[in-house]
Amino acid sequence: MSLKKGFYTALGTPLDKDGNLVEESLKKHINQQIDAGASGLLLMGSMGIETAVRLDAYKEIVRVGAKEVDGRVPLFVGAMDTSIWKVCEKIDAMKVCKVDGVVITAPYYGGATDAIAVSWFSRIADRSPLPIYLYDLAVAVKYKITMPVIDILIKHPNIKGIKTADWELILAIGRKYPEKNFECLYSGLDSFDYANMMGIDKNLDGMFACTPKNGRALYDCINTGDFEGARKHLDNILLLRDTMADYNLMSCFTICMNLLGCDGNFHEDFELEALDGGAEMMKETMKKIGEL
């Protein structure tokens, strides 16, 4: 599968107070993004709180999400976990659904070395009936995927790409393997406009989940070569992100998604509530950037 350029949204995951999927909310969220022109969707990435979801709810989220997307855009599903057994258990839940790829980090909690990472990704790719995409998320798993590891894993027939915010790693992969069908999804949100100017044109981030209007406008500008306009819409997205961070980011993500008409909690069950004034500030900022 060859991915087209554009923005790829890491979806949020709407849950009720008991951790069950709010089905209609997820469906609405998916359709908001497809209607906004998303080139693909990542279900249960880090913005989708995959590691905090119960396994029974995980299976239902995959089922409902895949059915709703129905092949209209590529659908990737996160399966991050602490053991190969547990990752494969999650992949098993996807077998009967239309899923285009599985996104996984190196193992977290136990830690990883280059040798462990190569073994981990290779053994999962050997067992998976679905293509595997590497997720370079050092801030969470305390391990950074490097070019020597890519040199080994890129040879595996079932490892098809990587999601990373490491600009230099993407450039190194492109220079060394220009003919290899290895997809690089860039997740360095702050430089999406410049990245597209440099030809790094497949961009994935969770902030698109709560900024569908700015996401569409950003890539409409990029596609017409209007990088001044693109910068304006990217700045809108960054303004919302930074404001969310000031008041507890994931709780504020819930507030923003609820303002867009998607019910449920989009944050982990351990997350603190938004700081005082957060709800009002989210609404004000969403209006300011044109999402409301």
What is the percent of helical residues?
40-55%
> What is the end-to-end distance?
36 Å
Specify the overall morphology: globular
Structural class assignment: alpha/beta
Strand line-up of the largest beta sheet: 7-6-5-4-3-2-1-8
From the 3D coordinates, which CATH architecture would you assign? Alpha-Beta Barrel
User: Which band does the percent of strand residues land in?
Assistant: 5-15%
Largest sheet: 8 strands, parallel
Q: What would the average pLDDT be, to the nearest integer?
A: 97
Q: Low-confidence spans: pLDDT under 50, at least 5 residues? A: none
Query: Element order, helices and strands?
Result: EHEHEHEHEHHEHEHEHHHH
If you compute it from the alpha carbons, what radius of gyration comes out, rounded to the nearest whole angstrom?
Answer: 18 Å
Number of separate domains: 1
**CATH evolutionary superfamily:** Aldolase class I
Give the CATH class: Alpha Beta
CATH topology: TIM Barrel
Q: What is the tally of beta strands?
A: 8
Compact description:
It contains 12 helices and 8 strands. It has 292 residues and is an alpha/beta fold.
Structural account:
45% of the residues lie in helices and 12% in strands. It is an alpha/beta fold and 292 residues long. It has a single domain (6-222), classed as TIM Barrel, CATH 3.20.20. Helix 9 runs antiparallel to helix 10 and helix 10 runs antiparallel to helix 12. It is globular.
Topology:
Layout lengths: L5 E5 L12 H13 L4 E4 L11 H15 L5 E4 L5 H9 L8 E4 L9 H14 L4 E4 L2 H4 L5 H7 L5 E6 L2 H10 L6 E4 L5 H6 L4 E4 L6 H12 L3 H20 L2 H11 L18 H11 L4
Parallel strand pairs: 1-2, 1-8, 2-3, 3-4, 4-5, 5-6, 6-7
